Amino acid sequence: MIKPTLIASFFFILIATHAQQSSNRLPNGFVYVKDIIPHLEVDLRYCGHHNFIGKPIQGYLEPQTILTKKATEALANVEKELNKNNMGLKIFDAYRPQSAVNHFVKWASDLKDTLGKSEFYPTEDKRFLFKRGYIASKSGHSRGSTVDLTIIMLDSKKEIDMGSPFDFLGEKSGHSFANLSTQQLKNRKTLKSVMEKHGFRAYSKEWWHYTLNNEPFKDKYFDFPVQ
Question: Which InterPro entries match (predicted)?
Answer without folding.
Answer: A_A_dipeptidase (IPR000755), Zn_M74/Hedgehog-like (IPR009045)
